[in-house]
Amino acid sequence: MIGAVTAAAAAGLAGGVAQAATGFGFALVAVPLLALAATPHDAVVAVTAASAAMSSWAAWRERREVDRVLTTRICLAAIVGMPAGLAALILAPQRVLAYGVAGVALAFLAWTLAGRTVRPGRATVLGAGLIGGAALTSTGMNGPPIVAALHALRMPVRRQRATLQAVFCLQDIVAVAAFAALGQTSSRVWLYVLCAVPGAVLGWFAGDVLFRRMDERAARALITALLLASTVALVVTAGG
Known about the structure:
This protein is an all-alpha fold. It has one domain. 84% of the residues lie in helices and 0% in strands. The chain has helices spanning 2-22, 26-35, 40-61, 68-91, 94-114, 122-139, 143-152, 157-181, 187-213, 216-239. α3 crosses α9 (187-213) and α6 (122-139) packs antiparallel against α7 (143-152). The longest helix has 27 residues, at 187-213. It starts with a helix and ends with a helix. The relative contact order is 0.23.
């Protein structure tokens, strides 16, 4: 338990740095890290709850930059996709879930390294929300498709970061409510959340400093390094 609590605090800190520095990446970094010491199921639920708290705070701080119309469209589409992810979270064996988490992270890593983009448009935005909703409730990682969609729109960096926080905030709140309603939370999960949130806030302040000083290439290199290290560790652990 002590190891898992420590992992939760470290996951929150590392995830907060990534999220502030790049606009996303909290779950991409935090879920694999926490899953090293906790079950993949608990890691997904706890990180989603911690992300809801941190993203709510960050979205409020950045509220003047949020694109509200875009946020609404993405979140409504996400709600449609969430039931499929919930079914996977509840029914899939823990090892399968661990590999699912690693698979999503590695797919995004490959997409990033390849420099791929998607076409802008309403279909892209709604599709990203739908896929993101399913990914959120199954792996905790709704960021990759949503980031790809917003990146295709060529939004200003600060506006994109703020809009992402609003999207994550609303989606996470709905997901956590669904987790609680379906009996997927526990005292252990909430302990992880309590340990992760303070680190996430501290990480945000540190990442915000990096955000103001780094260019986009450096920010992506940071999250790629964190993502690769945590995902490889998760695959090794799941395989053992």
